Amino acid sequence: xxxxxxxxxxxxxLSTFSARASLQQKIEFIFxxxxxxxxxxxxxxxxxxxxxxxxxxxxxxxxxxxVLTKVLEEAGYTRDSTLSLEDFVTxxxxxxxxxxxxxxxx
Length: 106
Known about the structure:
This protein is mainly alpha-helical. It is built from five helices and no strands. Helix 2 (about 25-35) crosses helix 5 and helix 3 (about 45-55) crosses helix 4 (about 60-75). Pfam families: EF-hand_7.
């Protein structure tokens, strides 16, 4: 993620992790992580790819897709939805969304 950043961009990147960073700044940063191609939209494929990077071999592809499908459905979206930043904010801020995921470890 930090490849090719100049110093100013790198400092901006680090500032997102500061306690002084607003929730909006943090959500925008997370959105950029998921917006793999940088086009301002996040697809189900993008979500799966990032979750794959985060979970490694601890989850199967089927489990990843099930978790993401459930999260999207709880927030009123489908796996066919293409998410804008505004949609992403809606999902993260959705009052019914449970941010708890159990991953079985064999």
